[in-house]
Write a structure and sequence with these properties.
By secondary structure, the protein is an alpha+beta fold. Helix content is about 20%, strand content about 25%.
Length: about 150
């Protein structure tokens, strides 16, 4: 069983930064949130901060990340999902071989996501992340990701 983080960083106008994945194979060419594997004995929040810095060059402090859900897939892998608002002047850029993409997701109808070739969960996770970040939706039934080592 492997643990991962995925984060959705929104700019000041509500557009989201995503990454066009080259790997793993099932994500190749598709957009996903920014993230990666949680290292041995690493806290989930530390992995999120490390991954966004490595993939976009932007250091988003831990205090700005909000955990909004944790998904455990049937095969046992877990993904901890985070959301954060970027400050004016914070501009994620491509830092690896995977391209960073800024998307006006609110302009898309639900079926419009298909035009962008996305991982299947993205049309659900992005609106949930935005809602949690800006509407302060109630978090029900999720464990405290800030202090749960993988």
């Amino acid at each position: 069983m492997t643990a991962y983080v995925v984060g959705f960083a929104f700019d000041t106008v509500g557009e989201v930064y995503l990454i066009r994945k080259n790997r793993p194979q099932w994500q190749q060419g598709k957009l996903n949130g920014i993230g990666g594997k949680i290292e041995f004995r690493e806290l989930s929040i530390n992995a999120m901060t490390r991954e966004i810095k490595a993939e976009t060059g932007v250091l988003v402090p831990q205090a700005r990340w909000k955990a909004f859900c944790s998904i455990t897939w049937p095969h046992g892998d877990r993904v901890d999902c985070y959301t954060a608002g970027l400050l004016a002047g914070e501009r994620p850029e491509t830092m690896t071989d995977e391209q960073v993409v800024r998307l006006d997701w609110q302009a898309l109808p639900f079926k419009g996501w298909a035009a962008y070739s996305v991982v299947p969960s993205l049309p659900y996770l992005v609106p949930m992340a935005y809602s949690y970040l800006y509407a302060e939706a109630a978090q029900v039934g999720f464990h405290d990701l800030q202090g749960a080592p993988s």
